[in-house]
Design brief:
- The complex is a heterodimer of chains A (336) and B (289).
- By secondary structure, chain A is mostly helical.
- Chain A folds into two domains: 74 residues, no CATH class; 246 residues, MetI-like fold (Orthogonal Bundle).
- Chain A is globular.
- Chain B has a single domain, classed as Rossmann fold.
- Helices cover 42% and strands 22% of the residues of chain B.
- Chain B contains eleven helices and ten strands.
- In chain B, strands 6-7-8-3-9-10 form a six-stranded mixed sheet, sandwiched between helices.
- In chain B, helix 3 packs across helix 4 and helix 4 crosses helix 6.
- The longest helix of chain B has 19 residues.
- The chains are: A mainly alpha (336), B alpha/beta (289).
- Chains A and B meet through helix 10 and helix 11 of A and helix 2 and strand 6 of B.
- The structure holds adenosine-5'-triphosphate and magnesium ion.
- The site of magnesium ion has 4 residues of chain B, from helix 1.
Chain lengths: 336, 289
Amino acid sequence: MTLLRKFLLRLITTAVTLFGVAVIVFIVIRVVPGNPIAMMLPPGATDADIARLQAQYGFDKSIFEQFLIWLGGVMQGDFGQSISLRQPVSSLVLGRLPATLELSVVALMIAVVMGGALALLGTLYRGTRTEGAVDISAGMALSIPDFLWGLVLILLFGVLWPVFHISGRISPALNTDFATNFYLFEAILRLKFDVVADLIAHMFMPALALAIPLAAIIAQLLKQSLKETMHLDYVTLARTKGYNENHIITREALPNAILPTLTLVGVQFTFLIGGTVIIERLFSYEGLGNMAIDAVINRDLPLIQGIVILFALLFTLVNLVVDMLYAVLNPRLRHA
Amino acid sequence: MSGYLSVRNLTVALQTGEPILRSVSLNVAAGQVHGLVGESGAGKSMIGKAVLGTLPRALHVISGEIWLDGVDLLKLSPAARRKQIGATAALIPQDPLTALNPSKRIGPQITRRLVDILGWSKQNAQARALELLDEVHIPNPERVMRSYPHELSGGMRQRILIASAFAAEPKLIIADEPTTALDVTVQKQILRLIAEMQSHHGTALLFVTHDLGVVSKVCDSLSVLYAGKVLEEARMHRFFMHPVHPYSAALLAATPTYTNPIDSLLPVSETVIEAVEQEVLEHDIRASR
Ligand SMILES: Nc1ncnc2c1ncn2[C@@H]1O[C@H](COP(=O)(O)OP(=O)(O)OP(=O)(O)O)[C@@H](O)[C@H]1O
Ligand SMILES: [Mg+2]
């Protein structure tokens, strides 16, 4: 009963959020200077040509009317037609989404593993130089934004020691017969390890660039939380039972220390997804973010609109998943 | 005099050199209950923590010996010490609300160490846990084993912690003010339960409290601690008949008994405190030579 109510409330807030985002973006991109139609026409086009196309895309109507038309289409699953690519926005956007999702999830996994390991290391050696080293590296990782990490990585692993691909998502020779656009997921399921290796070799640097700042945040937050937990009575009691320090940290303290970290990491993960826009551009990775930049350059209003809505939906979904995880991991909420 | 637990000349200090325990010696004989009394901050908990290897990181053992089951813990490697403590001793903590892991069910919190550390089979550990929960008068033990700590009352949780402490039949249990965090009504039940379990299992018990009245009920002997220094170690009868140290006598006078009703209680007098402080100071001077 309460669970159902919570779920409904969530659904409503999500809908309202998305609507608000849609309105704001709709207005902003139309107020900003730049005419999409003029940009798509060849230099010799007449004013009459422009006016005809303006009318075809509905740009001659008022913003309010345009919005209603757009909203009516969205209700039927039609997000309009991309001006620059002349294809339905929905299929364009959904076609690119898997690439960005895979990149973000791989980045998240790298961040969790790196950040988690650093936090555990720092806790195990708390009060020593090792903890100091963890603090310093986390501080350094955080003081450089993800796209600069991207440049650093390109320099290291693309130029000085070229072991990873610096651009694209997959080598053209291997880019065959995928049933979905979830290349990595599909290749793993079909046990095509040469393809997996190639995908990883492309994805590694952009994912790492996205992951490093998040890893630093996880390392700092989780270490702090772990250190506080280590003083609690049940941890002391576990010590007297003969468990070693590793067990105490990972089994007694960690499950409880994760909780306060989780919500913040959820928020940070949405920032990471936002970071894909620039990182994808930097590494010519064919994802949503890269498409978003092209769309902005071309003033492709319907496409921008579609991409922004999808990003907003993604963010709310991430928050939902975090809340659910929190409830699953916290027994005090499980029964509530 | 030497006991199952024998602490000898144990000095513990802060990094700054400020002593917290000053050449503490005390003995807990096998199967006996030894009380450890003293005012707040005297260092009672630190003695327990030193024995169980859970001293805060800011504190260090400077010198002394801690003999447990015939082995000097301070001469062992950390791993061996942990093993020795886990196999022979257990703790009944002060605050049952914070001493159980909130993210784990009760069952595993009792049984896991029996399996992990002591190598029992899962079935044996499970059976043992049920038997003990029954012994500490917990109704419907199967259900409690599946519960999370937050679903149980403080008294219930303290019973569980007592059961858990006795689970591996330790030969020594340290109970650090095991009732102060509980309701007055529950306090008596828990106290009775600990005494009952102790005599039934024949465990040596180091009972930390600041309540001489409680000590008189459950202990066979006691040590009086002031500022990290043991002022007097005595058998129960002797102590209540003829306290040797003036501070002990003052403490006794400040404790309500049948013959000493509440109205006639005296606070520990200034002169006694000054004398004890002087004694502690002299000890420090001797120790620094
Ligand atoms: N982590 C710590 N760092 C520094 N000093 C500490 C720390 N923990 C305790 N102390 C000091 O050690 C002394 C003894 O503390 P302890 O907890 O053993 O007292 P206690 O006799 O158990 O008192 P209470 O009856 O209040 O529990 C106190 O003076 C306290 O200030
Ligand atoms: Mg104490």
